[in-house]
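Lecture 7 notes: from sequence to structure.

We start with a single chain of 187 residues. Read the sequence below before looking at the structure.
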Amino acid sequence: MTENRELTELVERARQGDGEAFGQIYDRFADRIYGFVLRQVGNPADAEDITTGVFLDALQQIGRFRWKGAGFSAWLFRIARNDVLDYFRKQGRSRETELSEEQLRQPAATLVDEQVAADWEAEELRRAIRRLSPDQQQVVLLKLQMNFSNRQIGEVLGKTEGAIKALQHRALLALKESLEGSAETQE
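Now the structure, written as tokens:
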């Protein structure tokens, strides 16, 4: 059975009240949702709490889920995005994404010189991403780290594919300018 067909059957069973099917959905998506949330809130304990809330919300709302648009994973990530926004509203904090060193760390290089260069580049990338708008940060996160399509990102962010393409284009231009600017100051 293909993965999409299996997911469709799990969702349909969960919509009918099958707790085991929902548990399998949880197992399939929990790590990805947690990673998405953690990259935004920066605190593992808060990320765990929010992730739990996402799945409680999904369980309560799964009867209303309809197969349209980008699909189930986009629907689930949209719930996660909304729960993260609620978290920031309750905290009275800005929605600015704080990415820690571990969250965007490049794979370790084998040579010391390569490691130093990789560490510097990763830090510059983290700084450049923090300077993006919150929507641009989320597009970069969903596109590059979660490998979502523009359609799925649009579903998560509540925007059209065209708007996502524009956000992505502006984000990549801003990253390029920022990284080129920091490279020039290092020379």
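The two ends are 55 Å apart (CA to CA). Keep this in mind for problem set 3.
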